[in-house]
Design a protein that fits this description.
By secondary structure, the chain is of the alpha+beta class. The chain is built from 18 helices and 48 strands. It is globular.
Length: 949
């Protein structure tokens, strides 16, 4: 035992276990101090020498929002590398830069909110760029690698403490704080939980962040799965940090509780330990916690539980042992190694989707580089500030020589003529001032609303030619000749003041709306404020949302973008069209996409290039898949926005300096008609993702071509006690050194329930010189072949035949073998003893899963309050039952049928709300094994069906 001394209380004694030190510090904190720790910005406790602490530092693909930092490819691009070693090294670099930045700026946090492990189920999700893959195994493999890099390899202290986002089943932005993901048990256990589980079990995760949405009618910030699953996966104390503003949403938008005291108490009891709400002002949260204590909704022990979890993270980060913290002196920032790593990552993320022999480009070729992203290095909401940058045009200039490269951006050039005959004009500014930055080098937050240190637009007889860019469905940006985008500041004036569109509310986007009063005229609507542009004596400004106050503009085109593209393409040997999205405009946080199609403006540019030059390469630089008609197109590549080295990497791949080896981390669908509704989270019933999709994709999961060829031979399968070992030989049969991504899939041959068409069980990225071979081995635990058996409420390995398929993508299988496995035979549902939990259905039509109570359990209801149907197969009634017992709330009817024939009907009514479940009984005679169908009519909420007699 260590005796306490005045100079070293036990929480300062590094010889003691962290748990004892946390307990000691807790006893020294007053109740007010402990309550204050529950807010994201925990204040210092000066009397104990405890520093202020902030949960949350964004670090998705580099340190974000805190000024200059190394910017790596977007997360979906890192997923496309299929390379855990690379991603681990990136995590090490990012966390090293976080430590180095922290040393000079206390605002930089070490509790990093990254990575995002939400699965890329639906490609129209606005935050597609933040996830790794639609597959849980690939997602967890990449996420585990990144968290290990972020954590560091010291056995005691962590370099940074990663928090996984966003728990749980979060894959839509539209109405994200009020929509509910209906997730059946099989999807929950086989799909959505799996990416979190495998990453947490790997041991380098400090916690999770719940998502804004609801799951099965219950907000994620009250998720019982935090207790039932997350904290059961590990003995380590995990910190649960709320998403920004989500605690208030429980009352303000979701109306789940009547008071904030109730909501705060419920979130804390569910497992939320840190409340991210009201910015840096912790007073409202602390007042709510105080109110909950006074009302008896919380105890001090509940508060201590949450504070203990937070302190456990702070001790692991070395805060209380600065002399022992091995990362305290980390100064690695923007090093040559980090710059090289950024380029390596950008190169490995590039996916060659199609190549009819045009690539790699031959030496001496004359290029036309065209398109809206040809000379752009786009950032997203979770990027740091670029220290270095490389656009595709710059990369190709560097690689092929500027004299061999022509450029046409392809923007429409216009003048906007006012109703008085004058034109919008951008005042000339000599040596425009630098964008204001704060002391840490970050852009001043006031810039989100635009700058006011430049003169506003005016109108004169000549005007200014503006670049008009239609990013999607009429959403425009307007750019001055000096490259500055038109933006709107807090004072309402338009200025050419932004380097790029950006900010939480983008102030650089507009829409031209036809004028009802003036034939051929248009109103210019500013999308950030919803107001219309008018021309006033003191400058051009946004007047308000009354169209009658708006200026009427005539759009005079001085050049069409496709004409400039056609001129450049006609004189080139090969055209490189660079198309894609601006991550702040088309698909982003708070905004889903509406279509897979390439925006119309960019389709026109591609068509213009192809019309005059068939040797056209389309390079898509985007945060998500597109549905592109590539008929007759000789070459097609895709890369996510690749960070600071994106242009150099693309040029090196086009030139053949690097053979592409990225692989698609999600299915590319051929058309919007192939997609489910964005809110249909049932990947099994909806036949979604490569696991279940039965159509023909544009490009399949795992797809990616190379500049060489590979042969697969010598498949071997060995059975161990609880695993299968699968091996094969891969040979580079071409003339180019390259990487190959070897992929192993499994498939249950004759399953008793719908199972994946094939499922990724292993992957390995290997580099091979021409003519060389390597043996690739995968260990597949038999647990990976299990499914969630709803009749048993647990996982089960079904006996029977399983295929083991090795190849270069989910649809390019080169070798296969079949094994027979013993397992646990299926059994009939013991409904006489257990009844039926309503959500444990085999099939459903028109049903949504909802919350049984505010704290736990599921019920089902017709999705639209109309009708719905549930099917439960092979229900065993034993020697017979004589009655049915229904537990339900709401109003409506429950019809019970056996093998298609109605047997009983029960009417539900008179309940006092959605959680006031009543027990209803009816005569019901059955014996033996039958399929049970339940028909629901009206807003009834069915929780359980039992049988008696």
């Amino acid at each position: 035992m260590t005796a306490e001394t005045p100079s070293m209380p036990p929480f300062r004694d590094a010889s003691l276990p962290f748990a004892k030190r946390v307990d000691d510090l807790l006893t020294r904190l007053t109740l007010d101090e402990r309550i204050a720790f529950l807010h994201q910005f925990a204040p210092a406790v000066e009397r104990l020498g405890v520093r202020a602490f902030r949960t949350g530092q964004e670090a998705l693909h580099g340190v974000a929002w805190m000024g200059p930092a190394t910017v790596f490819p977007q997360a979906v691009g890192l997923g496309a590398t299929w390379n855990e070693d690379l991603v681990r090294r990136i995590g090490e670099a990012v966390s090293s830069e976080a430590r180095a930045m922290r040393a000079r700026d206390d605002r930089v946090g070490l509790n990093v909110w990254s990575p995002t492990v939400n699965l890329l189920r639906h490609p129209l999700w606005g935050r597609n760029e933040e996830g790794y893959s639609e597959d849980p195994a690939l997602t967890s493999a990449v996420a585990t690698a990144y968290t290990r890099g972020l954590r560091g390899d010291h056995p005691v202290y962590w370099r940074t403490a990663p928090v996984l986002k966003h728990w749980l089943a979060h894959n839509n932005e539209t109405a994200r704080d009020t929509s509910s993901s209906s997730v059946r048990p099989r999807v929950l256990h086989e799909y959505d939980l799996r990416a979190f589980r495998d990453t947490v079990v790997a041991g380098a995760v400090a916690g999770v962040m719940p998502a804004y949405n609801l799951v099965n009618g219950r907000p994620n910030h009250l998720s019982p799965y935090l207790r039932e699953h997350l904290r059961a996966w590990t003995d380590q104390e995990l910190l649960v940090c709320s998403d920004a503003g989500a605690p208030s949403n429980l009352v303000d938008s979701e109306h789940y509780f009547d008071t904030h005291e109730e909501a705060t108490a419920a979130a804390l009891l569910a497992g939320v330990d840190s409340f991210t709400d009201h910015g840096t002002d912790g007073s409202r949260i602390t007042a709510r916690v105080r109110g909950a204590l006074e009302r008896g909704l919380l105890t001090e022990a509940d508060i201590d539980t949450a504070v203990r979890r937070q302190l456990a993270v702070r001790f692991r980060l070395g805060e209380f042992d600065p002399d022992l913290d091995p990362y305290a002196g980390t100064g690695e920032f923007d090093t040559p190694a980090h710059r090289a790593l950024a380029r390596e990552a950008a190169e490995q993320a590039i996916v060659l989707l199609k190549n009819d022999g045009l690539l790699p480009l031959r030496p001496g070729v004359r290029l036309a580089v065209v398109g809206l992203l040809a000379d752009e290095c786009k950032l997203d909401w979770y990027s740091g500030t670029l220290i270095h940058r490389s656009t595709p045009l710059e990369g190709l200039y560097e690689r092929f020589g500027a004299e061999h490269v022509d450029f046409a951006e392809g923007v429409d050039r216009v003048r906007l003529r006012t109703s008085s005959g004058r034109y919008l004009a951008v005042p000339a500014v000599e040596d425009p001032p630098e964008e204001p930055r704060d002391g840490g080098g970050a852009l001043d937050p006031a810039l989100i609303a635009g700058r006011t240190d430049l003169p506003p637009l005016t109108a004169d007889a000549v005007g200014t030619e503006l670049a008009l860019i239609d990013w999607r469905e009429g959403v425009l940006t307007l750019r001055a000749p000096d490259g500055r985008y038109l933006s709107v500041a807090d004072d309402g004036f338009l200025r050419a003041s932004a380097d790029q569109p950006g900010g939480w509310v983008v102030q650089e986007t507009f829409r031209l709306e036809p004028s009802a009063a003036h034939d051929g005229g248009h109103l210019l609507k500013h999308l950030g404020t919803g107001g219309y542009v008018c021309v006033a004596a003191d400058g051009v400004k946004v007047a308000g949302q009354d169209a009658r106050e708006a200026e009427v503009f005539e759009v005079e085109f001085t050049e069409r973008g496709e004409d400039a593209v056609a001129r450049a393409a006609a004189s080139a040997d090969v055209v490189v069209v660079v198309a894609g999205n601006d991550p702040h405009i088309d698909g982003r946080e708070t905004e889903d996409r509406t279509t897979l199609r390439l925006p119309a403006h960019q389709e026109r540019l591609l068509d213009a290039a192809r019309a005059v030059n068939p040797d056209t390469v389309l390079a898509l630089v985007s945060a998500y898949p597109y549905a592109v008609d590539h008929t007759g197109l000789p070459a097609l590549l895709w890369t996510a926005h690749g960070g600071q080295a994106a242009g150099t990497a693309l040029a090196r791949v086009l030139a053949g300096d690097v053979s592409p080896a990225g692989r698609l981390p999600q299915t590319w669908y051929a058309a919007d008609a192939d997609l489910p509704d964005p809110l249909d989270y049932d990947v099994i019933g909806g036949r979604q993702t490569y696991l279940y999709f039965e159509g023909t994709p544009l490009f399949p999961f795992g797809h990616g071509l190379s500049y060489t060829s590979f042969a697969y031979t010598d498949l071997g399968v060995r059975r161990e006690a609880d695993a299968l070992t699968v091996s094969c030989t891969v040979t580079n049969t071409g003339t180019v050194a390259a990487d190959e991504v070897v992929q192993l899939y499994t498939r249950a041959v004759a399953p008793s329930v719908p199972r994946p068409r094939r499922e990724l069980a292993g992957h390995r990225r290997v580099g091979l010189a021409p003519g060389t071979s390597t043996t690739v081995t995968f260990d597949v635990p038999l647990t990976a072949l299990e499914f969630w058996d709803v009749s048993l409420g647990r996982r089960r390995l079904e006996p029977g035949a399983y295929e083991l398929l090795v190849g270069a993508s989910g649809e390019d299988i080169r070798l296969g073998a079949t094994v027979e496995l013993d397992g646990e035979p299926g059994a009939f549902r013991p409904v006489r003893e257990r009844g039926l939990d309503a959500a444990d259905f085999d099939e459903q039509r028109g049903i949504a899963i909802v919350d049984r109570t505010r704290t736990t359990g599921d019920a089902v209801t017709p999705a639209d309050g109309g009708t719905g149907e549930l099917l439960y197969r092979a229900c065993d009634f034993g020697e017979g039952v004589t009655g049915v017992v229904v537990e339900a709330a709401g109003e409506g009817t429950v019809e019970v049928s056996l093998d298609g024939g109605p047997v009983a009907e029960l009417t539900v009514g008179g309940t006092r709300g959605p959680y006031d479940h009543r027990t209803l009984t009816a005569a019901f005679t059955a014996g033996g094994v039958h399929d049970v169908r339940l028909g629901l009519r009206g807003p009834v909420r069915l929780a359980h069906v039992g049988f008696s007699g």
